[in-house]
Amino acid sequence: MTTNPSSSEPEIYRTDLIDGPSTQGTVTNHRLTANDIDESYVGKFMGCHDDQRGVNYQAKILKIKRWDSGPRPGLTLWVRHGQVFDRAAYDDKIHVPFDTEIEIIEIEPA
Asked: Which residue range is the domain that position 60 belongs to?
């Protein structure tokens, strides 16, 4: 997640996959601001990065709550991070300002 301006056109590229039946896949990356995220994104996957392991991976969006007023307006996301190498899967809750960029990732194995 970043606080850079969002792009309206998705990025589409081929990449190596580290898990699953296929070693190659097509990735579609939609860059949105947190303000653009609503309940229709529950069940979709957002892009994440693990600095320690040097990999990008997906976290599944489980629940979303908007906070339009109060001391910290923004979006709270409950997400499930999958297992990455030796790191076990875990659930997490994050809160971000509305202008934070979130990458919604779709992967289609080749």
From this structure: 11-109
